[in-house]
């Protein structure tokens, strides 16, 4: 199937109230344009350098999300334009995002990335760290940052029971934090597990290969 066909198929499977972030990492500008021409405006990239190259070559009304680990020294490059940084995995990087947001005279939306998978290779905050950061946030420690939600990745496994349990951990944290201040985005689910993520309460999904095809890396 072509990229537009894939996109329309995925779009049809996602309820209207669930945001679709089209993950275009490793894919060329031409393919991204095809998806843009289908009406998609929210795209996700996981590397700052690749994102910067693409931003310059694509329409300016795209809302870019960073979904990969962000080094503190690279925050300044994306602070002027990034829509949402989904991958906040330390207080250090959050403080830097706040600092650069001040310099750019804007507020930057972020999601706290929480570690829910059992693999220890994946980045993300422990639940307790996420709670502490959120509590600092409520006390105005990062005034130019808006924490709009949580992001998580489940373990890469066919075991649906395990994946579901991991998603539910994030959903519970989302509900708990929302009691203090309403969170908007629960970002979980990728090409292989997005229907399950939506069942578990995700209202934002990050889909790459099911739209763009297999990545060559
Ligand atoms: C690559 C990536 C995705 C998309 O993965 P697919 O399996 O291609 O849909 C989603 N989230 C993050 C954080 C990623 O790095």
TrEMBL record:
<comment type="similarity">
    <text>Belongs to the pyridoxal phosphate-binding protein YggS/PROSC family.</text>
</comment>
<dbReference type="Pfam" id="PF01168">
    <property type="entry name" value="Ala_racemase_N"/>
</dbReference>
<comment type="function">
    <text>Pyridoxal 5'-phosphate (PLP)-binding protein, which is involved in PLP homeostasis.</text>
</comment>
<feature type="domain" description="Alanine racemase N-terminal">
    <location>
        <begin position="5"/>
        <end position="215"/>
    </location>
</feature>
<dbReference type="InterPro" id="IPR011078">
    <property type="entry name" value="PyrdxlP_homeostasis"/>
</dbReference>
<protein>
    <recommendedName>
        <fullName>Pyridoxal phosphate homeostasis protein</fullName>
    </recommendedName>
</protein>
<dbReference type="InterPro" id="IPR001608">
    <property type="entry name" value="Ala_racemase_N"/>
</dbReference>
<feature type="modified residue" description="N6-(pyridoxal phosphate)lysine">
    <location>
        <position position="25"/>
    </location>
</feature>
<dbReference type="InterPro" id="IPR029066">
    <property type="entry name" value="PLP-binding_barrel"/>
</dbReference>
<keyword id="KW-0663">Pyridoxal phosphate</keyword>
């Amino acid at each position: 199937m072509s990229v537009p066909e894939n996109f329309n198929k995925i779009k049809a499977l996602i309820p209207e109230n669930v945001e679709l972030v089209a993950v275009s990492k490793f894919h060329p500008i031409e393919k991204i344009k095809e998806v843009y021409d289908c009406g998609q405006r929210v795209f996700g990239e996981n590397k700052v350098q690749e994102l910067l190259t693409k931003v310059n070559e694509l329409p300016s009304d795209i809302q870019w999300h960073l979904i990969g680990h962000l080094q503190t020294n690279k925050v300044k490059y994306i602070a002027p334009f990034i829509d949402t940084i989904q991958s906040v995995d330390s207080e250090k990087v959050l403080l830097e995002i706040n600092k650069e947001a001040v310099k750019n005279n804007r507020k930057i939306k972020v999601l706290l990335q929480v570690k829910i998978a059992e693999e220890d290779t994946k980045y993300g905050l422990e639940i307790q760290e996420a709670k502490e950061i959120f509590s600092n946030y409520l006390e105005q420690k990062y005034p130019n940052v808006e924490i709009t939600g949580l992001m998580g990745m489940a373990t890469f496994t066919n075991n649906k029971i395990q994946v579901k349990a991991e998603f539910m951990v994030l959903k519970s944290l989302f509900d708990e934090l929302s009691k203090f201040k309403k969170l908007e985005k629960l970002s979980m689910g990728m090409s292989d597990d997005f229907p399950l993520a939506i069942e578990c309460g995700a209202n934002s999904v990050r889909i790459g290969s099911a739209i763009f095809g297999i990545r060559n890396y």
